[in-house]
From TrEMBL:
Protein name as it appears in the record: Folate-binding protein YgfZ
Any one GO BP annotation for this protein: iron-sulfur cluster assembly
Organism: Brevundimonas goettingensis
Residue ranges of every copy of the CAF17 C-terminal domain listed in the record: 194-261
Record keywords: Transit peptide
Family annotation (InterPro entries): CAF17_C, TrmE/GcvT-like, YgfZ/GCV_T_CS, YgfZ/GcvT
Length: 270
């Protein structure tokens, strides 16, 4: 059965005008110049030091680009883009069309989620009849093990690679410059990735946001970001995920998602 849910936590921005694609291409982690009609891509706007400010999807909408962003951050992104606009021939405006998700399959009229096929699809426009609440979609996302940067990161604190953007098609390393590119490219090139967001599984309710993940009872291995009964997303040190992990005194286990390749752990540092 394919489920459909309206995503009230998401909202749209329409960027139009002669320079729309080149304008966004100079800012975002994703290639925009080649974005086709009806095509969906995943990316982010970073701070100049390379930390996440806004996660977003980009949808080709004629000559314009729709940005699918966290609803409570839409106005902040509009202001940020307006600040960058300068003399670019672009218009940046809120778009009130709804966002709908389908899962586990891509329903008719939907576009495949570019992060992983396991997440189903997205649609912009008429919602139609939904069959499930947004909470069910979020539970599916947790089961797939994909972070939601709008919920799982603090603004301007987390690097996109820590939030798995490089593994979820959120960064085009072959494109030209974007805001924060130097730090992002250096982290990838050196391969010195110490922290990543990974799913935890456990019995009972989710730990408190910010709860410490401990290795062998006393070594800090990371912190819980968000979660639900039985599963959560945590930002973890990759050199401290093998062993006896606990959160708030409860045993937890790291679950490596199917979409995540096995990476060599960095050398342990005390």
């Amino acid at each position: 059965m394919t489920n459909l849910a309206g995503l009230d936590s998401r909202a749209l921005i329409r960027v139009s005008g002669e320079d729309a694609k080149s304008f966004l291409n100079n800012l975002l982690t994703q290639e925009v110049e080649t974005l086709g009609e009806g095509e969906l891509r995943f990316g982010a706007l970073l701070s100049p030091p390379g930390r996440l400010l806004f996660d977003l999807f980009l949808f080709g909408d004629g000559d314009a680009v729709l940005l699918d962003v966290a609803a409570d951050r839409r106005e902040a992104l509009i202001q940020r883009l307006s600040m960058y606009k300068l003399r670019a021939r672009v218009e940046v405006a809120a778009d009130d069309r709804p966002v709908t998700a389908s899962w586990p399959a891509v329903a008719e009229g939907f576009v495949a989620d570019p992060r992983t096929a396991l997440l189903g699809g997205r649609r912009y426009g008429e919602t139609g009849t939904t069959t499930a609440p947004e909470a069910d979609y979020d539970a599916h996302r947790l089961a797939v093990g994909v972070p939601d940067p709008a919920r799982d990161t603090a603004v301007d604190r987390t690097y996109p690679i820590e939030a798995d953007f490089d593994l979820l098609n959120g960064i085009d390393f072959a494109k030209g410059c974007f805001v924060g590119q130097e730090t992002t490219s250096r982290m990838k090139r050196r391969g010195a990735i110490r922290n990543r967001m990974l799913p935890l599984v456990f019995d009972g309710p989710a730990p408190a946001v910010g709860a410490e993940v401990l290795l062998n009872g006393d070594r800090r291995a990371g912190e819980v970001m968000t979660g639900a009964d039985g599963s959560a997303i945590a930002l973890l040190r990759l050199d401290r995920i093998d062993g006896d992990l606990t959160v708030e005194g409860r045993s937890v286990t790291v679950r490596r998602p199917d979409w995540m390749p096995v990476e060599p752990a960095p050398h342990s540092e005390d």
